[in-house]
Structure formats: structure tokens, C-alpha cells
Amino acid sequence: MNPLQSLLDYEQFIYTLPQKYPLIRRSTLTVVRRGTAVARLTGELEIGPYRLVVREKLSFTDNAGQIMGYGYEVWQGQEKLYWYDSQEHPDDPTLAITHPHHKHVPPNIKHNRIPAPDLSFTSPNLPFLIQEIEELLR
Rounded to an integer, what distance in angstroms lies between the CA atom of residue 138 and that of residue 136? Predict the structure, then answer.
């Protein structure tokens, strides 16, 4: 089942992530309701020496949820390793295949972007992001 079916389902999904992913050492993720159909997800997951900083804007209409925008940053100590965001870059044809989903990577992390085929507005992105960090640990 897709946890974005309802706001209640998504809250339960978020607050049980540490039970589903034992490598999560700490979670400060918080779903903040902004009415009956809108919410924000903010906070961090600590996975080994890495921190995943999470920001999502969520909308739930007719019990169907959607991520309206996001930013995910992966840090090791004081170093930002990479990040994902949904800001559109229509003038960059290399990103068209996953528009607007993309990843910022070194070198020149602000301007060096690659497609992000595993991210979505209609299903949770956190399982992919957690698994990506777990791969860094191996």
C-alpha cells in the first residue's frame, strides 16, 4: 500500500521509519498539518555517520496524497555530500528524462545536476533515500 493514500497513513509511515530501518539511529522527522489537506514534513534522519535532512510539502485531496515539492540533503559531519530537489530546470536538456526530479553532485555541487529516476511526487521518496545511504555504509 502507498502511504500517501491519506495524511494519517503518511504520518504513520513517517513515525515508524526507525522500526522498518534499523540503521536509523535518530529521527526528528515531524509532520505538521496545515489544515485538513495540507502538511509539511521536516526534520532529519541520522543513519550511521550520515544525516538526511528532509523537507516536503504535501497535499491530500480526495484521500490521494501528493508531494508538491521537496528538498533532501545528505551530510557527513559538516560536509554536504549531495542533495535532491524538485526545482525545475527546463533549460537543461540532460534533466528532461526525470523532470523535475534531479540530484546535485560534486564537483561544483550547486550546478552539477543529474537525473533522479527513483524520486516521485506520488509515492514516498524516503525508502529510496535511506537505502542509498545504507549503500554508502557498505
Answer: 5
